[in-house]
Amino acid sequence: MPHFIVEYSSNLHEQLEFQDLFKQLHEYVVSTGAFPLGGVRSRAIRCEDYRVADGREEFAFLNLNLKIGHGRSMELKQAVAERVFAILCDWMKPVTDSGYCQISFEMTELDSVLKFNKNNIHPLFK
Predict the structure, then answer these.
(1) To which H or E segment does residue 63 belong?
(2) CB atoms within 10 A of CB 19
(3) Cα 57 vs. chain centroid, distance in angstroms?
(4) I want to staple 1 with a disulfide (CB 3.0 to 4.6 A). Which of 57, 66, 69, 114 is the partner?
(5) What is the pLDDT of residues 7-25, one digit of tens each?
(6) Does residue 66 contact residue 106 with C-beta atoms inside 8 Å?
(7) Residue 68: how many CA atoms within 13 Å on its side-chain side?
(8) Where are the alpha helices (DSSP H) in the chain?
């Protein structure tokens, strides 16, 4: 953890370069000292079937969900959420400056009892 999951409308596909966003997000969360590099992962999912507002073809959306493991303070979670959203909005500025796009972000804290994972990448970064 953490996992960054982006869902976006397909009409944005040619305008977005996700590797730059992912690099910024990974570097930021690791810099907080609260998230180990070996657990950070990101992915983008293009949505072909969607409708925004009244259905105009030029309307777009992008939603970022950040899933984190349980156990961090509310102050840290709020600071991380605010900074992640700022990074996202700054990265999306070329899109929002030239067109119509709904941007949303949500942080989800997973219950430690209901979350399972196996990761053999962590030892590479110790």
Answers:
(1) strand 59-68
(2) 10
(3) 24
(4) 69
(5) 999 999 999 999 999 999 9
(6) yes
(7) 23
(8) 18-31, 74-98
